Structure prediction request, 738 residues.
Amino acid sequence: MSKLVAFAAIQGGYNIVSKAEGRYKKALETYGGAQKLEFPNTAYYLPIIYSLTGMKVTDLDSAKKPLEFARKLLPPHVKNDCNLPYLGPLLDAGMAALFAEEIREALRYVEDPDFYQPEVEDPDIENGKIWLGAADDAIMRKRGVEFVDGTAPGFAAIVGAAPDSATAKKMAEEYQLKTIYVFMAANQNGTTFTEQLIEENVQIGWNTRLVPFGPDISAAVFALGFANRAGMAFGGVQPGDYKKMLQYQKDRVFAFVNALGDVGAAWAANAAGCVNWGFPTIADTDIPEILPTGVCTYEHVVANVPHDEIPSRSIEVRGLKVTITEIDIPLAYGPAFEGERVRKDDLFLEMGGGKSKCTELCKMAEMDKIEDGKVEVIGPDVADVKKGDRLPLGIYVQVAGRQMQPDFEPILERQIHHLINYAQGIMHIGQRDIAWIRVGDQAIDKGFSLKDIGVILHAKFHQDFGSILDKVQVTLYTKSEDVDNLTKRARAEYGTRDDRVEKMTDESVETYYSCTLCQSFAPSHVCMISPERTGLCGAYNWMDCKASFEINPTGPNQPVEKGECLDPKLGQWQGVNDFVYKASRQTVDHYNFYSMLIDPMTTCGCCECIAAVLPTCNGVMTVHRDYTGQTPSGMKFTTLAGVMGGGQSSPGFVGHSKYNITQGKFIVGDGALLRMVWMPKSLKEEIKARLIKRGEELGVPDLVDRMADETVGLTEEEILPFLQEKDHPALKMDPIVG
Ligand code: SF4
Ligand code: ZN
Prediction:
């Protein structure tokens, strides 16, 4: 290995530490030692320093010790006439640089508080606020877990800039395709990889896994700090246990550095620092290589790699296993694109979402009645519409197979959501007859047509459910009349599915089922599905989960022995709690099935309805996704979903399915359906028959007529007189807020 590299890195370490000391001194003079010094919203202090040394930096005074520590770590300068084994001192120099840089970046939060944008996942590009800085703990929890559970195989820390923006885009997309996160830092003569992507109209941010940390090399600490926080949060590594932390990073977090452009002393010091983590550097310039292996899985520094080979070479050097599945559509396809949104300005075509109908139905067919791989679009396709148009859409999937059963239909149908979302430039929300698809301009430019939806479903159903099906045929309807017919038929099917649990009670079974399908959006969210509490998306009931477990015993629906009943009124069981604690990765340790007031179940963004407490009316309201207006809670559905749909338990609110409203256990812990004082008129109409039946069971047969809706009022004050006039039962119940 090269003396030159060691020289540069050690020199870089000295420079970086000295600079940080200077800035620190100045800050101390300006702000005083009590000035707070921290990254925003984190319990892990300055995470590299905290995780490796146990030192907690909270203010300028407490930064003194780690800065002195960094100075002491600096090895003697490399002398020209002596040949040392360089790796040890080199690594120390790198570590010293990273400690100093972490303090340097924390100082920036004090000196220039608007420079970074904490708490947001996507930068505000229009207003030029492109740098995100340190991820806060909420983002770290949501994203970090992906590195630990394998959803994301790793991250590429890209420093510098590509020779041109087109190359940057190509590299970024290749990483996205492989579901690898790209963390961006540093500039090359003022040009950054991030700005190159913006120039190419590539969506950046946590949601597309292209994360713009900062324009300076010191922003590399955000990537390493993120990795170390994940190690503490998910790997159980104790702060200060540097050996275990670095080992954990090497074994579990598959990351590497791509150095694009001239590598100066500062970059060399950072690259050396990264070797401590086992993260190698792959560079596009002719820098001296460090090839002997030891600390990293394979080589430490590999130079002069052509740009189109950098991603594959990096993956190979880091020893990463990636599986990609080719689907014959003109769009990039994979989980990295799942969280991507199609915004109004980029919108070419929209289907569903309240303005037109979009319905999904999966049905089993006889083997000889369908043709495998046949995809038909009946009605206009993208070539027949112009930008900004809407179409109704009916997605009708027929499957056949020797192992197929009608019970499996809803499980296959529910896959449509994420399978369509995986296509770059296509967004899918919802399920059943409230699906919503947006197609972006970019997808159209690349040649997307509706037929591709069928191609995706055919390929992925075979791939993921090959054990139960042999044939998949997809029909896409885009004429209103056909979509209406399909919707009518589908609603009857949904009804039949729901009815299968109609006569079952929670007491009649010992086993409930979990659903963790939504953890890609809401990592701590765990649906627990009992006969009397269907999944909040409305797409999974107890029977469906049972079937899903049969198809895929290691899948997202696991049987859970409910165990000892801890609270029969609120609906809480020991076995369920234990499971939820584990499945939420220690975030949620208990919840109640039958209460929205006290520790309710967690909620994710795809719930059909959201209920909220109305204190003045001594009752609750609920609103479904199709109703876009204001509600007496002061929030519209979208706001409610945004506030509490991230996978947490939010007392006073709960997500639930439409069907669940009239199930026997619906909020019985809070006074049951008799608490319901408001719901949109269209929802009342939709479930009217069942509302009447449930009202009868509760001794108030005309309950539905005593509930207010938007025609009565949109605030608690407006609806209260109506409730009084109708003698609504909620008004005579115990106070809802104690
Ligand atoms: Fe599963 Fe719940 Fe998500 Fe529905 S909302 S898919 S039941 S986790
Ligand atoms: Zn969900």
Notes: Residues 506-732 form a domain with the Bifunctional carbon monoxide dehydrogenase/acetyl-coa synthase(codh/acs), Chain M, domain 5 fold (CATH 3.40.1470.10). The two ends are 71 Å apart (CA to CA).
